[in-house]
Design a protein that fits this description.
The protein is mainly beta and about 350 residues long. It contains 2 helices and 24 strands.
């Protein structure tokens, strides 16, 4: 698990990762023009997978919006989960060949956006903040959803960045940013939820890569406040490449505490039963108790995807790099099980 600390390029002239490992900041330029996973260059764009995922957790709801370009198809989707009623509302637009979806080259600069005159989604990172804008009047059978929010992210705030080989000149480059104080608003069905940094935290999942045609993974995440007022972020995963750069970490008050591989124990035929996560180094021991399952399926012949996103509460303990023990109690987050043919 080599830590990368200096700027460089993601892919060399052969289309292979110039450096594999992990980093606390996005030091490498995402030069996808060097990708060489297929012999015929005109078809390379169809194998590139790119997405920008933004989410914000408030005491009242969980709101998320994503722009994704998967080569064959693009998608724009948003969902909102009301914690009081447990009602989940979502909608997806599918765009052949990703038409109209514009994604920035790197995670720390450049706007990503989609605007077809009826739906507008835009993400704009800056030096100290990221703005998220959503206008979707037709969402939820015309009841609509909109958002204008800012996720504050100082240059010193650490994230989990991984550069992972996946075999055959395939790779995954991802940046996960937890615990970004959020302000602004989210409006659904005419009800506006005001966001305040002292009670609302955002998460970013930025991904670029070339995957195998059939893939599966687990991703677990949370951004929350501890009882003492500190922010804590969880980022754990399995199934991402050759495990040379696992992105397992706890982010405490904006500082990454890197973990070894994390094992997931769960009932595969009943994902709503409690899960257990334990790191191989013994520094993380968690139980995850679900309360809501979100299922998203798509089948477009060449592209097929099935996502089970389980919302629940994390409880347990972790140990920092300095050996300090800390406890989690009923921290709201999610686990995602994803199987794709893409």
């Amino acid at each position: 698990m080599r830590e990368i600390t200096l700027p460089g390029i993601l892919l060399d002239e052969r289309g292979e990762l110039a450096q594999a490992g992990w980093a606390r900041q996005p030091y490498l330029d995402c030069n996808l023009e060097n990708a060489r996973s297929v012999p015929l260059r005109p078809f390379q764009a169809l194998r590139l997978k790119r997405w920008d995922y933004y989410a914000v957790a408030t005491p009242e709801c969980f709101f998320s919006v994503t722009l994704a370009h998967l080569g064959y198809v693009g998608s724009v989707f948003a969902y909102i989960l009301d914690f009081a009623t447990n009602e989940l509302t979502e909608e997806t637009l599918l765009m052949p060949l990703g038409r109209g979806i514009h994604l920035a080259r790197n995670s720390d600069a450049g706007e990503s956006w989609f605007d077809n005159g009826r739906v507008r989604v835009a993400f704009e990172p800056g030096a100290n903040a990221r703005r998220v804008e959503v206008r979707w009047p037709g969402f939820d059978s015309g009841r609509g959803i909109a958002a204008d929010l800012t996720l504050h992210c100082s240059p010193e705030h650490e994230s989990v960045v991984t550069m992972t080989p996946m075999g055959g000149r395939r790779f995954f480059y991802t940046r996960k940013i937890n615990c970004l104080p959020a302000d602004g608003w989210v409006e659904h069905r005419g009800v506006r939820t005001e966001l305040r940094p002292a009670r609302c935290l955002g998460t970013v999942d930025w991904g670029r890569g070339v995957w195998a045609y059939q893939t599966a993974w687990i991703w677990a995440s949370a951004s929350a406040f501890l009882e003492n007022g500190q922010t804590v972020g969880l980022n754990m995963g399995a199934g991402f490449g050759d495990a040379s750069a696992p992105d397992n970490a706890v982010v405490l008050d904006g500082r990454v505490h890197k973990l070894d591989d994390v094992g997931f124990e769960y009932q595969r035929d009943d994902l709503m039963r409690p899960w257990r996560m334990t790191s191989r180094d013994g520094r993380l021991r968690l139980e995850f108790v679900p309360f809501k399952e979100r299922v998203a399926r798509s089948n477009l012949l060449l592209v097929k995807s099935e996502i089970h996103q389980i919302f629940g509460h994390y409880s347990g303990t972790f140990t920092t790099d300095e050996g300090q023990a800390a406890a989690l109690r009923d921290v709201t987050g999610f686990v995602e099980q994803h199987r794709a043919r893409w």
